[in-house]
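Annotators were shown the component list below and the corresponding predicted structure, then asked to write short factual statements about the assembly.
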Amino acid sequence: MSSFGLKPEPKPMPAINVEGIAAIKPHSQARPARNLDEIDLAGQGAGFVSREAKSDPVKPYIRPSRKRDRPVEQLYQLSMRPPVSVVERFYAYAEKHHLSLPRALEQLLDESERLPS
Amino acid sequence: MAVICTANPKGGSGKSTTTLVLATTLAESGASVCVIDADPNQPIHDWRTSGKSSSNLTVIGGVKENTIIDIIQAQARDFQFVFIDLEGTANLMVSRAIAFADFVIIPVQASAVDVRQAGRAIGAIHEDEKVRRRSNPDSYIPFRLLLTRTPAPGAPVSTSQKELENEIKDSGVPRFKTSLAERQAYKVMFNQRLALNELSHVGNLEAAISNATQLVNELISILTGEAAGDREAA
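Structure shown to annotators:
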């Protein structure tokens, strides 16, 4: 407001510099190639680093299979038995010496104690 | 020569607003203008694709680190003015765009944080200049700080802004004489997705247009004068 309580005269709108704009031309030729590694190194020197993920974050979809490829944990053989041939040899031993099975086992243990260690 | 990028690693400093105001004002005056929207939020690409503005402004979005240089070089051959609106972070795309720019605008609000981050953009400019000077000792990248969201002319200026302006002056960092004032019209441009001259019923629209015109005129005088330097040689 002026000292007389009147609004000041509005300033004329500035005109745009059309001649100056016309003087700006598109690049007439391609710029000389520059080494991208050098540019990046210069940028990194000022703390400008890549923010883009290097690998594709979207993994390809793999249909789930019900077939279990490998057991989750090692399955232990709970029904441990001696090999059949050993059992057969034990029966043969008991028969040969006309012994009951417990007696044949005791005799085998006694014999094993006499063997040189 | 008219590849102009707006860069400041600090977000919210007014990069997109500056870019849109300058680009639409130039397009309105008959210049051929392209904006490369390298901000992941794509504010200007969204302005173009979702809006109904009749502005003769071409906007390219979806730019990546590995494509930005090719896009800049291709557009620079077709348009008088190529603006690059960059993300508000210190990323590789920013330094690559700066390396291929003819002129860098560093928008800053009157805050110490903005100015400190602007220093990082200036650092990137100087680092790239060092590389260029290996082949051309006179090479340089012209740049200017642009104060944004400043009080409208006639409105009281805060002490902190005055101090900051004095600091910039003392440091010798070049800045635009014109500032981009805090205007409702600049926000409404994004809300309504229209150019300044297409807006209506916005408070003090004439002042906003006048401010934009002054800024464009100062930019043109810099580009046609001082900044004409060694681009071709570089």
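Statements collected:
1. The CA atoms of residues 1 and 77 of chain B lie 10 Å apart.
2. The longest helix of chain B spans residues 112-135.
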